[in-house]
Design brief:
The complex is a heterodimer of chains A (220) and B (483). Chain A is built from 8 helices and no strands. Chain A is an all-alpha fold and 220 residues long. In chain A, helix 1 runs antiparallel to helix 6. The relative contact order of chain A is 0.14. With 483 residues, chain B is an all-alpha fold. Chain B has a domain of 208 residues. Classes of the chains: A mainly alpha (220), B mainly alpha (483).
């Protein structure tokens, strides 16, 4: 069990990093949402595996939440919003795809170097999980920085949150936080979808953040 | 006695929560506004009663000690006075049609949820619970900032949401790392997240992991404090939201985030192998101070200007706590208290001024002391205080920060004094235009609530002239506990 548990956990966490990379180069909103659903699905598998390995049944709850809300409900809702707003056109990225990918690779290398060095004494399973989780978090940040579209920024934020859930489940026996952080990520997603997008739509007829930038509070 | 104590702690948390539920259901803004004031007053009284009751053992989730009680009393006090100001402010917003009754209901409920979130963050003995509470407070303020639904308000709320969530995400990662560091020493489960357990056994933790954790926590919670490279959300959020929220953001929420940083700083300081957290905080503090000092010159919007002034002062406070030692910590605590009182008083004045003049542009507001003597002179006193002139309390705390720095690290005192002078110049320059000269705009009499403003300014003045011995002893005790 020992070696297999280790390898499968690695495979799933590594898969999550890979899907994060896939999110980076999507240039259509629908495709982006599909990949995000895949991201959440891999997360659910990974959390479920941790629940099995650590013999921590409460983690199954987290896995189910990830599967039902993040992999199914939220992509569906966002899909409908995009449809209703009629914005299923291309996403403008601030930086080119090539450059974004190179920056992403750099971030992954950075997080692995940093985390593996400082966690020399920790349990190897948790340790490498943590390094990969940090990669997912940083890639999510990168995505939020390189996108201007409000929907893709939210997707970037949710992928970042997935990385946090991965880290929290990797830390053995971490109390409370898994459930609460998942509840909060749902709350955030709903707030964003419900309030911001509709309000932005109402006021600007666009969800492009660049349009917001034109209305800077301060004219010089 | 401990039963009574438990009641007081519960009251500080449950009153805002119950009030939030009630306010969400009640129609009619007059009643809601009064109920809001009443709830805030009761919370404040409960918080004060904590001072006089013996403290029992810290629980698994909640804790009251020397450090957080200062924050709680200050938090609930400013929360109360702001609710008084909010009542008149909101009535005016309703008359001018900027807010509708349904939004007001939402506003009052959110105000109490915000108070609940902040009090919970301050009382939490569990680092996970603290994170959740700060996230709750952040989310409610995001909603409040966007409440006017103008272009600017939406942009501000969006920016605040994105930067705030990134900050809060980094802080969660830091929290997880602290748990990981505690795991081999304390073992699995809830124990490894309880702050009082952590601080007892932190010496045995892996220092490398703690270092990385602190960097994440400082960046994460530092975003919420508004420290320099991560401050971008702060001016927008202050300028575009309702003014009572600007006052609460500046005076309270920044403090709560700083409190979280201080808790983790204590953890690091207790571990012999970990890096010293002080220099990191000193660097970020000085950067914020000098940067905000220069940015003050370019401001055209009055609320934005005072938002930058908040960045400047949070920089000074972070600097003082980063320096450490009894004197600098004492100065930091005093400065934090004085800044909260003064800045919220300034926002009270600015809120009424912006309402009567119908603009927030500095260039369009002139001669306030002639057109509205009470408001104008309050603003003058407030700005004089915030700029650090004697005899106000901020002068004393800034003097203590500077003199303790000169005594220990004379080289660091140079950028500190430089930053203070730059900010002083900017504030005085703007103040002369705002307060004196030929009045412009509407000179209609204003229906203002002067009491909160005057109370704050009187307290700041009193603290500058004479600080009572019990308060000095209290702050010294806290400063010593901060190490």
């Amino acid at each position: 069990m020992g070696s297999l548990a280790f390898d499968v956990a690695h495979l799933l966490a590594g898969g999550l990093v890979l899907v994060s990379f896939m999110l980076l180069y999507q240039d259509r909103l629908y495709a982006l949402l599909n990949i995000f659903a895949l991201h959440a699905f891999v997360l659910a598998l990974s959390v479920a595996w941790q629940a099995l390995v650590q013999d921590a049944p409460h983690l199954y709850v987290t896995a189910v939440i990830a599967l039902v809300f993040k992999a199914i409900a939220i992509p569906l809702v966002l899909h409908r919003i995009i449809q209703r707003l009629g914005i299923h056109r291309e996403i403008e990225a601030v930086v080119g795809v090539g450059l974004t990918m190179i920056a992403g690779i750099g971030l992954v290398a950075l997080s692995i170097v940093v985390m593996l060095r400082v966690t020399a004494e920790a349990d190897p399973l948790a340790r490498e999980d943590l390094a990969l989780a940090l990669s997912v978090v940083l890639l999510g940040l990168l995505m939020m920085v390189t996108r201007r579209n409000a929907v893709s920024q939210v997707v970037g934020f949710m992928s970042l949150e997935n990385g946090l859930v991965l880290a929290a489940t990797g830390a053995k026996g971490m109390p409370l936080v898994v459930e609460i952080s998942v509840a909060f990520s749902i709350l955030i997603a709903f707030i964003v979808i419900g309030i911001f997008l509709f309000r932005i739509r109402e006021r600007f007829d666009t969800v492009d953040i660049q349009a917001l930038d034109r209305f800077r509070g301060e004219r010089r | 006695m401990s039963g009574l104590f438990g009641d007081a702690v519960a009251a500080v948390l449950l009153i805002p929560m119950a009030a939030a539920c009630l306010l969400a259901l009640l129609p009619g803004y007059r009643l809601s506004a009064r109920l809001n004031v009443l709830a805030a007053l009761l919370t404040f009284l409960a918080a004060v009663s904590l001072l006089f009751i013996d403290r029992p053992e810290p629980g698994r989730y909640l804790l009251v000690d020397d450090l957080n009680i200062v924050f709680i009393v200050l938090n609930t006090f400013v929360g109360f006075t702001t609710s008084v100001f909010s009542a008149t402010y909101i009535a005016h917003e309703l008359e001018t049609g900027r807010l509708t009754p349904i939004y007001l209901r939402f506003y009052h409920a959110m105000y109490q949820v915000l108070m609940f979130g902040m009090n919970l963050a301050l009382l939490a003995n569990n680092i996970g619970l603290m994170w959740v509470a700060i996230e709750l407070a952040t989310l409610t303020t995001v909603l409040m900032v966007g409440i006017y639904r103008t272009h600017e308000a939406l942009e501000a709320a969006w920016k605040y949401f994105i930067l705030g969530s990134v900050g809060i995400a980094l802080a969660l990662f830091g929290t997880i790392l602290v748990y990981m560091a505690a795991l081999p020493v304390i073992g699995e489960g809830l124990e490894a997240m309880i702050w009082t357990v952590l601080i007892e056994r932190v010496a045995a933790f892996d220092p490398a992991l703690l270092n990385v954790a602190f960097v994440f926590l400082l960046l994460g919670y530092g975003t919420k404090v508004g420290l320099a490279p991560l401050h971008a959300w702060l001016p927008d959020a202050h300028a575009e939201g309702p003014t009572p929220i600007s006052a609460v953001l500046s005076g309270l929420l920044l403090n709560v985030a700083l409190y979280a940083v201080l808790r983790f700083k204590l953890l690091l300081a207790a571990n012999p192998g970990a890096i010293a957290p002080g220099p990191l905080m000193v660097t970020m503090g000085l950067t914020s101070l000098v940067f905000a000092g220069f940015m003050l010159y370019r401001r055209r919007d009055i609320k934005r200007m005072f938002a930058y002034s908040s960045i400047e002062h949070m920089g000074i406070i972070a600097f003082a706590f980063g320096m450490g030692g009894p004197l600098a910590n004492f100065a930091g605590l005093l400065h934090m208290t004085m800044h909260s009182l003064t800045k919220s008083a300034i926002f009270f004045a600015v809120g009424h001024i912006a309402q009567v003049k119908g603009t927030q542009k500095i260039a369009e507001i002139r001669g306030l002391t002639a057109s509205h003597p009470w408001l104008g002179w309050s603003l003058v006193v407030g700005v004089v205080a915030i700029a650090g002139l004697p005899p106000m309390g901020i002068f004393m705390s800034e003097f203590l920060v500077v003199s303790s720095t000169f005594a220990r690290e004379p080289l660091l005192a140079i950028p500190l004094v430089f930053g203070l002078l730059v900010a002083f110049g900017a504030l005085m320059l703007r103040l002369s235009g705002l307060a004196f000269g030929e009045p412009t705009g509407s000179t209609a009499p204003v229906e203002a609530s002067y009491l909160p403003m005057f109370t704050h300014l009187a307290l700041v003045l009193a603290a500058g002239v004479y600080l009572p011995a019990p308060i000095v002893a209290w702050f010294q005790q806290v400063a010593a506990a901060l190490g």
